Amino acid sequence: MAKAESSEIKKPFWKKAIKPAILIILGILIAFPLFSMSYYTMVRTSTPEFCASCHEIKPAVVAWRSSTHVNNASGVVVDCMDCHLPAPQNTFNFFFSKSYHGVKDVVIHFLGGEYDQEKARNNAYAAFENSECQKCHRNLLNMPYKRGAMLAHRSVLYARPGYEKKCVDCHYDLVHSERGLVMYRQTREMPYQAKGLRQL
Q1: Burial environment of residue 176 by CB neighbours within 10 A (0 to 12, 13 to 18, 19 or more)
Q2: What pLDDT, on a 0 to 100 scale, did the predictor assign at position 59?
Q3: Which residues have CB under 8 Å from 69's CB, separation 6+?
Q4: How many domains does the chain fold into?
Q5: Which side of the chain, N or C, has fewer Cβ within a 10 Å radius?
Q6: Which residue numbers in the chain have pLDDT < 50?
Q7: Residue 69 in contact with residue 175, Cβ under 8 Å?
Q8: Which residues of 121-148 are buried (b: 16+ CB within 10 A; e: fewer)?
Q9: What is the CATH number of the domain that holds 170?
Q10: CA angle, 168 as apex, 167 and 172 as ends, to 5°?
Q11: Is residue 15 part of a domain?
């Protein structure tokens, strides 16, 4: 009995470490491709071009292309996921929201029957949070030449109980409106389109 115990104690270190090492290597070989595929899928499905591949969403993407979220003096382009999903830094919320909306849109596309664009638009506005806008629009109270806008923003940021408002209550048609048609009626010219943007 003592002989058997002493032989186990004298077992070389590499023999003890070989099983955990194999398990770790197998874990890496399985986990790395899965993580890479998941990340690649998330990146590829987060582009406006991917959103526009669904015919229900295409009118919203076309309207977005002529909005100030694409065509502005600063050259900043705000993509779909910048407004419609939580910030990627909130990893769990981002992945959950993206997965939920993706599955929901696929189910509606194939099983939902007639797509009601106005109803979908109203649902999107109802679910919109001010934090989505404030990811980019942070310095809303420093508007020395726009006192009315500054006061309006202050009433939203520091709302009294019962008087809460959303950014989209005032900025309802900011992005997804028929801006091209509106501008053409007003000026008889098509709105400016930034060069380099691919046509849908």
Answers
A1: buried
A2: 83
A3: 77, 78, 83, 174, 175
A4: 1
A5: N
A6: 1, 185-186, 194-200
A7: yes
A8: eeeeeeebebebbeeeeeebeeeeeeee
A9: 1.10.3820.10
A10: 140
A11: no
Q: Residue with structure tokens 């910030």?
A: 87
Sign of CA dihedral 18, 19, 25, 29: positive
User: Does some domain include residue 6?
Assistant: no
Q: What is the largest CA-CA distance in the chain?
A: 99
Domain assignment present for residue 16? The answer is: no
Give the pair of three-digit tokens for residue 14.
């590499």
Token pair, residue 137, equals: 């629009």
Q: Is 113 left (phi over 0), alpha (psi -120 to 50) or beta?
A: left
In sequence order, which residues have a C-beta less than 8 Å from that of residue 150 and are 6 or more positions away? 140, 141, 142, 143
128: which 2 tokens?
Answer: 């919109």
The pLDDT score that the predictor gives to residue 200 is: 43
For residue 61, the 8-state DSSP code is H
Question: Which structural domain range is residue 135 located in?
Answer: 45-187
To which H or E segment does residue 114 belong? none
Residue 9 lies in a domain: no
Closest by CA position to 157, among listed 144, 174, 180, 139: 139
> What does the block give as tokens for 193?
């389109």
Answer whether 66's CB lies under 8 Å from 182's CB: no
This model's pTM is above 0.90: no
Structure tokens at 163: 């008087």
Cβ-based neighbours of 155, under 8 Å, separated by 6 or more? 163, 165
